[in-house]
Design goal:
The protein is an all-alpha fold. The chain has 2 helices and no strands. The chain has 2 domains: 53 residues; 35 residues. Helix content is 96%, strand content 0%.
């Protein structure tokens, strides 16, 4: 009886080790797949960054031009109001 219990305990330990090995292999495979996807995503993000690198200087130029226009609009509005007042009088 004692021998049977020892054999069954050894078999049980082997089953646990085999199950752990199987699931560790599955986890490793899943992590490798995730790594491949992350590499593709990184490549895509770098491509977008390269394509958008010219936006920054262009926006600064546009903002400078809009600031100039905004400064001129106030003067134009004052002149239009003066013309409207003189036409009404």
């Amino acid at each position: 009886m004692r021998t049977l219990l020892i054999v069954l305990s050894v078999v049980e330990v082997l089953v646990v080790i085999i199950a752990l090995a199987y699931y560790l292999i599955q986890i490793s495979s899943s992590l490798h797949e995730t790594s491949r996807h992350l590499a593709k995503i990184t490549f895509g993000v770098r491509a977008v960054e390269t394509q958008c690198s010219t936006i920054g200087p262009s926006v600064i130029k546009i903002n400078e031009q809009l600031t100039t226009i905004a400064g001129a609009v106030a003067g134009v509005a004052d002149k239009a109001e003066a013309i409207a007042d003189s036409a009404a009088a």
